[in-house]
Amino acid sequence: NYLLGVGRADCTGPVAEIPLMGYANPDQVGGGLLTRLYSRAFIVAEVDDSRRVVFVSADIGMVSQRLRLEVLKKLKSKYGELYRQDNVILSGTHTHSGPGGYFQYTLFWFTSKGLIRPSLNAIVNGIVKSIDIAHQNMKRGRLFINRGTVENSQINRSPFSYLENPASERSRYSSNTDKEMVMLKMVDGNGQDLGLISWFAVHPVSMNNTNRLVNSDNVGYASYLFEQEKNKGMLPGEGSFVAAFASSNLGDVSPNTKGPFCVNTGESCNNPQSTCPVGGATMCMAMGPGNDMFDSTRIIGQNIYLKARELYEEASQEVTGPLRSAHQWVNMSDVSVELNATHTVKTCKPALGHSFAAGTIDGVGAFNFTQGSVEGDPFWDEIRDQLLGQPSNETKACHKPKPILFSTGEMTWPHPWHPDIVDVQIAAIGSLAIVAVPGEFTTMSGRRLREAVKKEFDYHGTPRMDVVIAGLCNVYTHYITTYEEYQVQRYEAASTIYGPHTLSAYVQLYRGLARAIATNTVQDLPRGPEPPVFNIHNVTLVPPLTADRVPANKTFGDVLQEVRQQYRAREVAEVTFVGANPRNSAENATEHNFLMVERYASTSDSWHVVQNDASWDTRFYWTKGLLGRSNVTIEWHIPHGTEPGVYRIRYFGHYKKKLSNSHAVSIPFEGTSSVFEITAL
């Protein structure tokens, strides 16, 4: 028996002109909304309320150190010592279609155009609000755990790296990805459903790097389906049941199950360099199971949801026992690792290898770098030396065989380019140990870590622990491959920033946390060096918000292109309005809705909302024109089974109006389409 609380809050942020975080493609800038992003919070407390654990899964690319520090600062001012570094886990789902710009380390500024306050604030406020809601709704309840296999939803995107792991180790596993989903089910004292957390290793990259609409990708679609099913009759994003589909050791795991093909010739490019005979690496892309990226997102998301629903309904193993949590800050650029009695090795100052610039088959890089390069390229090395300075011999030697492209640990202007101080954290809820990792562990790295933590618990008298990895927690440090995978330097290895012994260092550190929890000596763990907070308010290349303007004889919200008079299910109703920059709305209102689809009820002579902008059936596109003008197009992809009747689409926005040189205001407006009829098939 525990006290349980669940909460969900919007953390979408600005949906226009902000680079999307994930593919590191500066041209991939937000231009609208497919579905809202949410923070989902779960609080578990002992019945006497002596100890608590908070797990948050947010629909964002990853949790940044800046984000975590700001959230914890707000929690401290609200709740004192109740929610702390050690008992709050913040995890990102790893969608690649959320706004970026919430990082304090310089490397991330290049692809997300700096530190963007409105983007950071939206995520901080959304996470805190979701915790507030969970905190206010604590009630007695029970936890159940279940696990099962998810089929047809992932492939290993670096299988040649995986094959470098010892054959004796590989032979213990039936697949080169972890197909297991672990699910934690929450019910209240009367057996009423409260929510669930699912952990499953897959990259949310069903939406590719051509996408411009903010969305939560395949795992977000799974959350949507589960919450829609449980919160009957509610609009998306409403209702008390909260379903989180959280990330795990997804480092080398892609949802693009058809595998890599050359986009120009159609032949397979499943080779160690992921390169095509014509056009090289930039032509090699993996495809999902659907007709297009929206369809693939739906198929993979639905697979994940269906398995979760089955595990939820059948969950019978109860989780009981005390709550414990442990956290340390560690300088990851300087950890000594005892491999055995005679052999000690060290981690390195952070650096990225050449293959980092190649990207992956889920999203290729810009300059035709290839994966698996253990040789540098004199052309790029020379440019790098001129612009950023040359890596030191010490760093080069430490990272071998990685050819260093960016020696980020030696770059400090205007602020350090990468973190040195990293969070390691484990929270135990009875027999479930949640290992919160600061990045993307590959399949085999995750297996080694889970096994080491489990062994440590076993050895210290806490057997039969369920160990689950929560990915992309607390601070982002790119990838963590095994030592063997590191040797072949594909993208994941080139992005293992603390060198070849990164995994061994983490295994040693997490074993230390597990030991402290098992032996009840958490209070003796050194806190470690506090991470820095750089004094940056807003450094950004995002264009400033200017006054919005309208075409002659038009006003904001006027219809430019009207809907048809009649549609059937599975068709697309589309309307275009005179629009304004959606960033005005984001800065104006946290709970803003850009659109509604309404159905006319003749009995009451009134309109009822049937869809909002969090729905996966609606798409909101913003197109910037010249001189402050812009258009908004709203699509409703009418789902099968939509009730026949009379409908309309409404658009809600804000335009910026200058009152004087120094003062501007945002003024709300709306637009409405003509009515249209949906007829039976």
TrEMBL record:
Top-tier EC class: hydrolase
Cofactor note: Binds 1 zinc ion per subunit.
GO cellular component: cytoplasm; extracellular region; plasma membrane
Keyword presence, Repeat: no
Record-level Gene Ontology MF annotations: metal ion binding; N-acylsphingosine amidohydrolase activity
Record: active site: S254 (nucleophile)
Record domain Neutral/alkaline non-lysosomal ceramidase C-terminal: where: 511-678
Keywords of this entry: Hydrolase, Lipid metabolism, Metal-binding, Sphingolipid metabolism, Zinc
GO biological process, one term: long-chain fatty acid biosynthetic process
Cofactors that this protein relies on: Zn(2+)
Protein name, UniProt field: Neutral ceramidase
